[in-house]
User: Fold this.
Amino acid sequence: MFPEYRDLITHLKSHDPHFQRLFDEHNALDQKIANLEAHIEHGTSQEIETLKKEKLRLKDQLYVYLKKASAA
Assistant:
């Protein structure tokens, strides 16, 4: 995710608790979606869709955060 911000992501993960929380939430949702789609966990297609929308919302927040941090 966002390879152009790799160094900034590494820095923010270790120095910004809010960014770290958002990043961890995004990764946890990504794993949960993968498990549901692989039928490792049980879930409906509606649940998967809802999780995907939440993951996208978090990704958008992370991107805005990265853009602001890179401009500072």
User: Anything to note?
Assistant: The chain is about 80% helix and 0% strand. The chain has a mean pLDDT of 97.
